[in-house]
């Protein structure tokens, strides 16, 4: 049976998973060496994510991060998703079997600590075809790992203006949505809490203007980081699923985790872009622009970080493990 201290450390590491506005909408229950992942509905940003889809994606990222953390600790995960039809908020139960960690397990666990959501302009990724192949292999499911039920497409550069227009459409619709704007202000507090997006992780007007495909947050200061990049040159990826169910959203999150970590291992910066899939009309526009017959779940910016480490995004806070993990026996 897995020791409780191992579970605590793994959940603590996995809690570095990104979530909408850093809301961390998850809670874990440990019982006799197993873990159960629950959706915490109290932490859904209802004016932004009324159906809870993005919260489920966030929980999917957390679930896969947990798998990675446990693999590095010497335990292989067996995941049973949505095990109870009468409890839709019980997203997964996870049991464990001892297994020697591979070097790739250790590298991905280390990537959890080093990954940041980078909203600044990025250079184009180097050796992208090699990294893309590694990411696709991971989505297909290496030995002992379930395939991720999501599709990843590398979008052509000529689609960038259309994607920018889709992002602008979202912003135009949201501009006079006072409830949405209140949520955005609340979760970008200037105070250091254990949740939300600190102002140190946001961008200035100049920096934001140089990234066409990104969410508009309350701007911070007048910084001009990465002046040598000019306009954002990041590769844009589309993550989509075959349907639009809760299981699809959870699976999209698991796939997102694998993309982010594999890119981090390769030395690339990433930034999930989910506001373009929040509204049905914009999701439809993204599907039409990209000519996919699947359901868009998220865009991902991937690129190279130039310059000094001082220009990299600040680490964002997380809730203590005692708030997200309960031992039931």
Automatic annotation (TrEMBL):
<dbReference type="GO" id="GO:0016491">
    <property type="term" value="F:oxidoreductase activity"/>
</dbReference>
<dbReference type="InterPro" id="IPR000415">
    <property type="entry name" value="Nitroreductase-like"/>
</dbReference>
<dbReference type="InterPro" id="IPR050627">
    <property type="entry name" value="Nitroreductase/BluB"/>
</dbReference>
<protein>
    <submittedName>
        <fullName>NAD(P)H nitroreductase</fullName>
    </submittedName>
</protein>
